Amino acid sequence: MNHQYAVAVHILSLLDHQPASSSEELAGSVGVHPVVIRTVTGLLRRAGLLETRRGVPGARLARPPREITLLDVYRAVNAPEQMLKHHPRPNVACPVGANIQAVLDATSRRAQDALEAELAAHSLGDVLGDLQTRIEQMSAPTAD
């Protein structure tokens, strides 16, 4: 997966807590330059996952977190259509080189389908719930 997917999920998670965050504030949490934030938020906005208003800083989720699947986010950031890439120029004069692409294509398609099914089965709401649990565990006093 490209890094924009992780950045996008991070941004959406932050915006659920702080709807009016600037790209500089978001960049501080994500650990990237504000230009990366603006690029990714532009992709999320075009995909209908974020809303922005002229003259108002920041952005907010366009839909409730439970209605945004991780597959929506994956597709919004122009993730590759296929995760498993093949080498581009096998030697077609070689029997293996001439046939390897066809042999690997079916497996690659099944792997891609499984990835997309898994992402479709989970929402931003699931991510936020898991984040909340981890944050609470971090702040819980330890028993000595």
TrEMBL record:
One of its GO terms (molecular function) is DNA-binding transcription factor activity. PROSITE patterns: HTH_RRF2_2. Pfam families: Rrf2 (PF02082). SUPFAM superfamilies: Winged helix' DNA-binding domain. GO terms for cellular component: cytosol. InterPro entries: Tscrpt_reg_Rrf2, WH-like_DNA-bd_sf, WH_DNA-bd_sf. Gene3D superfamilies: Winged helix-like DNA-binding domain superfamily/Winged helix DNA-binding domain (1.10.10.10). This is Transcriptional regulator, Rrf2 family.
